[in-house]
Amino acid sequence: MMTDYYDSNAIQGTMRVLHLEDNLLDHELVRAMLEEGDMPWPTAIERVDTEEDFQARLADFSPHIVLSDYSLPSYDGLSAFEYVRATYPHMPFVIVTGAMGEEVAVETLREGVTDYVLKQRLERLVPAVLRAITEAAERARRERAEAEIRQLNGTLQQRLEEVERLNRLAEERGEKLAKTAAQLEEALKLQKTFLAETSHELRTPLTALLGYLRRAQREIGKPELLGDPIRVAENMTRLVNDLLQLSRGELVQSIEPHFVNLADLVRQVGRDYGVRVVAPKSLEAVGDPMRLGQVFVNLVTNAIRVCGKADLVHVEARKAGSEVQVDVVDHGPGVPDDVKPRIFDKFYRGKEAGSAGLGLTISQQVVLAHKGQIFVLDTPGGGATFRVVLAALEDEDDEVLDTAEA
Known about the structure:
It contains ten helices and twelve strands. It folds into two domains: 8-144, Rossmann fold (3-Layer(aba) Sandwich); 252-405, Histidine kinase-like ATPase, C-terminal domain (Heat Shock Protein 90, 2-Layer Sandwich), CATH 3.30.565. The chain is rod-shaped.
């Protein structure tokens, strides 16, 4: 079975030669020259003298090389060569003829014939055959290599185009990300500017209001009547100051520790905002009562805002070993697991948000400043529970504080 690529390595055992020749004596001379010559393989040679037989044996005999007379009664060597070149491009083709002028010989070589040998000089036949097979094999290997290189170049070109496409896509996405980042940065700047300006605007009237309330407290006969308004005004002033700090990127750090009964603190918040409180009579800790009150106000108001009404919110306070735990429990939509790690981030606002996204951030910073913990849990039956954990007041703390006061 012939293939499009000719390879001399395919010659195993016997070299097959197809001889197109009408003269039987000339054929026998060629056979003898090949069989007695210094060929590296045994030779099997078949003769045909018509176009029909030549084309049939070319397919059936599968020769390694074709030898052809230049002129035959019903066919000619160049026509045979054209058929071979069209059918088996790498098949070596040598013209062996008795009479050929120099111009005709040059023309046959120009047409692509591998070589020609005059019958009067058959001693050139064996070297011509060997050279023809070697050149055909080299040409086949070269074309295979060129084809592989073209295929490799095509693959590389495809990959380069893919890399360029990915680079363009990366540049487009990079531009979009840069634009989004610039928009986010601008939004944060606007938000900080708004908070700073709002805090400045609120601080002046709150300071004046607090001053009026304290003066009125001193002048009236029953100062306890103004205790709650003064406390609310002080909390609002502290909140505004915290907002101003956060807008500047600063942390809430100013803590003034005192003895504090957390049970009384959460009960006061419950009364102020109409939520049920479950707490023992006394729950002692050391902390800043105004700051801790601010934490529980933030948590309770946030829960009421999320739930929509106060009766879906309650507060539980208890002592657990050496810790005090205060839970602000709501039965609202709850906090998804993917949101929990970000719930205390500055300016983070959930779906139910109605604030600037700073209340939980401030609460976390205050609790951390007290060396405590704050985290969010799922409420059984649905909702969210924000738990604040602080160190409980121990007996040793009482003795230290008593000594300090003495």
